[in-house]
């Protein structure tokens, strides 16, 4: 009776949960926070390996495919009807509803492995940017010939300590403020990187480029060129990917107009903004540095040192927010599982209301312990393998085909009851197969790059 009255008064939604208030604009903000992140810094390097024609074509292709398949996902938020059906709160629930238990398990393994891995990537990115700030200041004070190499480890530890505190935020719905700040800073460093690259081009100091990318010669064998191209596909795949949190984003949307319509609009706005920034950063970066384009474009600049420092500061601020946007779904699935296994445990389920200044929040012992352990482990893994491009490429490759292409297509086929071996079915399967090949080649290139790096550097002793 109380629920019925609250539903009539608009206090709760049709599923008995608190009224959702998100819209296309807030969903776009979440999308931008996720996609315009660590991956954008590696795109100039990817463009340098692929060249102008393949580089631009690949980024546009990823954008078109992503928009198409994410719109398919938007129709799967509710089951069986995309407007009036029962809500799927997670990607895994949607896969289970449409495709069954086996696919449900496969989806969970891929999705949450990637979510956990991305926190490692963001830790590496933040430390890389903090070291870049220190190097810019060092070169400004001591001159370009000075020895300015520093360990990433202290910065990773500091970043991890901060994430331990932020990880106590109970759920995704309380992240809008953090996501908004992160989205604003993402535009900041993307435009700074583009602007610094453009200033080099305008000054006439830009390096030679090619329609086929980096030149094969004494510094680069044909074999290494191929491996770099493969790895670059993973970098672009990561930059264009927000599949791991798309259902969490949709679960913030109000139900009128229908969530799928709002999300489709957000997909178009988010991917369009993403693609424009990607092309600016990658194109200007490649034109500025040519064959010697750095893996992280901002690390290639040292002057004006204050602007370089500001750009890298924006990166760190963004990584702080994006880390939580990506980690919260992973936290939630573990805590939901623990609640189902031990429903009577006070350690796992009891909330203790606390107040810090004017801020009220709930304190939970299990959340404190397990999230702290997770952040510590992800930080240690980042310290052990702080290889920016290769780790990001591997993360992008792992999730691209299954989460961005395969599951959306299979759910759509089931939802619309598309018959096998019809033209439409064959076209969907062809798209899925081509994207599978892209994923396999990107994984191979990433693993090869990590293997080479591990032979060059000792664990926990990497300096840049």
TrEMBL record:
UniProt keyword annotation of Transmembrane present: yes
Domain annotation Amino acid transporter transmembrane: ranges: 21-450
Family: Belongs to the amino acid/polyamine transporter 2 family. Amino acid/auxin permease (AAAP) (TC 2.A.18.1) subfamily.
Name of one Pfam family that matches: Aa_trans
Principal cellular location given in the protein's record: membrane
Domain of life (superkingdom): Eukaryota
Protein name: Amino acid transporter transmembrane domain-containing protein
Signal peptide span: none
Spans through the membrane: 27-46, 52-73, 94-112, 118-138, 150-169, 175-202, 268-289, 305-326, 368-385, 391-409, 430-450
Membrane topology: Multi-pass membrane protein
Keywords: Amino-acid transport, Auxin signaling pathway, Cell membrane, Membrane, Symport, Transmembrane, Transmembrane helix, Transport
Cellular localisation: Cell membrane; Endomembrane system
Species the sequence originates in: Stylosanthes scabra
Record's function text: Carrier protein involved in proton-driven auxin influx. Mediates the formation of auxin gradient from developing leaves (site of auxin biosynthesis) to tips by contributing to the loading of auxin in vascular tissues and facilitating acropetal (base to tip) auxin transport within inner tissues of the root apex, and basipetal (tip to base) auxin transport within outer tissues of the root apex. May be involved in lateral roots and nodules formation.
